[in-house]
Amino acid sequence: MNNKRYVVGSLLLTVVLVLAACSGVTPGPSVKLPEAENAPVTLRLLTWADERYQQLYDKFHEKYPWITIEQVKVEANEKDIVAKVKELQKAGTPADLAWIDGDLLAYEQQGMLENLKPYMDKDTSFQDKVLPEGYFDTMDFRGRRLAVPFVDVPMWIVVNKDLLAKHGVAMPPNTWTFDDFRSIAKQVTDPDAGEYGLTTSKEFVMRLLPLKAAADGHAANLAYLNDNMTQSLLNTPAVLDDVRWLTEFVTEDGSMLSWSKAKEQHDVVRSFMNGKTAFEVGGDWLLPRLKREANFNWDILPFPRGKKDQYSFHIYGPLALLSGSEHKEEAYKWISFQFELEAQKWKIDEGANASVIDPELTDYIDQAPIWQGRNIEAVKMTKDNGLVLPGATIPGFSDYNWVNMINEIVFNGYDANHLIPVTNAWNQQTLQLREKWKQQTVKKE
Fold first, then answer.
1. 144 φ, ψ to 5°?
2. Where is the signal peptide (predicted)?
3. N or C, which end of the chain is more exposed by having fewer CB within 10 Å?
């Protein structure tokens, strides 16, 4: 396309000079040649984003007026995304980009993903960006970059400060521990008033528990994975004790209700918004609603400190360029735009982290309206102490059913030892899948 622009420009210049020569007028510096216009392009983005993201689409359109983002809503699961990609391809209106849920390898195996590395290697604007070490680790597979994080979602413990104050408990410091967390949960629990330390929420199973295992040194990674993320440690004594620790909030402390007990109370304590619980795990999905609807004073705390370290829980949402796209260069512009300062600031405003390391973005946290009057230092902590949920390129990760299994133990009273045979089976499965992928790669080469 650049060569065509150059040829058109040369022809126009020739015409101008010929006309000028014929008229006896020499063109001066004020002569401005018309620029070739870009043909309008509409990019179809598969996403489960809410209406807030239209603001980001508009910012992108302002920068690239000829490119429009068309949001195609899908459910956040692998089955629906794959089905929609195939449906649009068959209809002759292929999708260009997609938020990815599930194993990236499942999409890669079906040939749906474009390798982003060549695009990023020649992207001069991207070369100037400083990113966290290992930023693409969960998106790269055997020399191919299958996706990039469209957002870095950090999480915190969300606190009902009014409920703490009612029971004479001060807001804990950012250096609080898991022992502090459990002690406070018990102190603010008053069954007669229908008040409890923890919301009856699977978020504690999904976020707090694996983070505790990592912070106590029982697992090297989130999801209870070992150092090289080839095996689950969910069948080890130390991690099983962690599971029992959270279960005791229900069975011994009474500071969190089981599903059946919560149902008896009309599920009031299954929602932090009701103001009847002191702690919940929250991220950017909860913050806007809190600002709009909460009728109590709330704030955030970092996840507690463990015996070894203090971490925060992060999710990197994968954004992929689809191989069936008919507008790959334009679609990559949307990917590159995610790392521009204006897009990064918008994400901070929405409660996410800045992915790019830049003093201007760090300073911007203090200005972001969403954090005014809140524990801003806790927000800044999550930039530096984050653990990212792995799994995008771990074979068979979508079959690793640890969340549902632990939910049954914590909230339904199942025996924690049930985790051992199931974990053993998955450990064998993921190794077999790795070997299968390795053999397929060798054949291709």
1. -110, 140
2. 1-20
3. C
Token pair, residue 165, equals: 């104050």
Q: Strands 298-301, 156-160: parallel, antiparallel or unpaired by DSSP? A: antiparallel
Cα Rg of the chain (Å, integer): 26
Q: What is the pLDDT of residues 147-165, one digit of tens each?
A: 999 999 999 999 999 999 9
Residue 209 and residue 243: Cα distance in Å, rounded? 7
Residues in CB range of 2: below 8 A, 6 or more apart: none
8 A C-beta contact, residue 375 and residue 298? no
CATH superfamily name and code, 41-207+270-398: Periplasmic binding protein-like II (3.40.190.10)
Count of CB atoms within 10 A of residue 54's CB?
A: 12
> 374's torsion region: left (phi>0), alpha (psi -120 to 50) or beta?
beta
> What phi-psi label fits residue 172: left (phi over 0), alpha (psi between -120 and 50 degrees) or beta?
beta
Q: For the segment 14-50, what is each residue's pLDDT rounded down to a tens digit?
A: 333 333 344 444 444 444 444 457 899 999 999 999 8
* Tokens (6 digits) for 123: 């992207």
Q: Which residues pair with 226 in a beta bridge?
A: none
Q: And the tokens for 225?
A: 């994975």
List, for residues 48-100, the tens digit of each pLDDT value.
Answer: 998 889 999 999 999 999 999 999 999 999 999 999 999 999 999 999 999 99
Amino acid in position 340: E
Q: Which of 193, 146, 145, 188 is nearest to 164 (CA)?
A: 188
Work out the end-to-end distance of the chain between its first and last CA atoms, rounded to an integer number of angstroms.
33
What confidence tens digit (pLDDT) does each residue in 96-143 have?
999 999 889 889 989 999 999 999 999 998 888 998 888 888 899 889
Rounded to an integer, what is the distance from CA 359 to the centroid of its chain? 22
The pLDDT, as a whole number, for residue 391 is: 85
Beta bridge partners of 153: 315
